[in-house]
């Protein structure tokens, strides 16, 4: 009498396969969350580094970098002898802002303008897109701060972790609206909800 083997899968084998698939999917989602979380922390760290460089420059020169500059690449700090009003609202002042921070002694490198979210930090003065009429300087994701350039879920997480969770107030703002729908967020939200995905702006207030 010959032994025969059933070529089909047993319930235990099928269960093991599903467990393995579940573990793989779980690791994939966990890895994605870790990457997203690292990008949020690195974005905040990058903005904080720029703010620290501004403080250091101000302590040495008595003004903000770029303030009063009439040229994008001033030969010396003393060449920026225009109006020192604390607002960097001309093209020359905004270009000189980055230039002066990268000169000797260099407080920032050129790569410090690069964001983990695939954009570059730019400088703007307060505008309606920032939800404030109060004069202030901001670093924004993208060239003008008016076009949606990052996933709103990152703005939501940054705002909730490091500010007030309201896109229209505080020191971290975006063009998102307050709410729980697509492209919106509010304080205490689950920012990684896929239904929130939309491209919005991001802004950090400077001194």
UniProtKB/TrEMBL annotation:
Keyword Transmembrane helix applies: yes
SUPFAM superfamilies per UniProt: Pili subunits
Species for this entry: Andreprevotia lacus DSM 23236
UniProt keyword terms in alphabetical order: Membrane, Transmembrane, Transmembrane helix
Transmembrane segments: 12-29
Gene3D superfamilies on file: Glycoprotein, Type 4 Pilin
Protein name: Prepilin-type N-terminal cleavage/methylation domain-containing protein
NCBIfam families: IV_pilin_GFxxxE
InterPro entries: N_methyl_site, Pilin-like
Listed Pfam families: N_methyl (PF07963)
